[in-house]
Prior knowledge:
Elements: H1 2-29, H2 35-63, H3 68-96, H4 103-119, H5 125-136
Amino acid sequence: MEKDRVIIFTRILFVLFAAGTIISMVIVYSDADGGMAYYFLLGYVFLAFFILLYTPIVTVMNSRKLKWTEMRKRILRFSVFFILFSILNVGFDYVIRPADIDAFRVFSNAFGVSFGISFMDVLFLRKIESSKQSDSK
């Protein structure tokens, strides 16, 4: 029951973040200049930082319930994607602007994308377990 609450809370957070992103883009591109717009954007920034903290914590908590073979596959997939995206990012940076290669930006982008590809479905672990059980029947 508590797992369902975490999944529902996670879904609500992601829907709010998506809606907030759209509204924030409209506010920024229309150059809105009111107090309400300022407070909305401030709240959106706090929501973004909360999601940045919330996602890895819930992912680690849910990944503890995975079997070691499944976890090993995910870690291997993460490592391969991290190396691949890092090499691609450095390669594109070298071709486009060879004098300005920022290692922190390269590795943080590669880390975020590879983490998202490898572990994003672990946030909704209850759905994974129920779908695997229904496939085995």
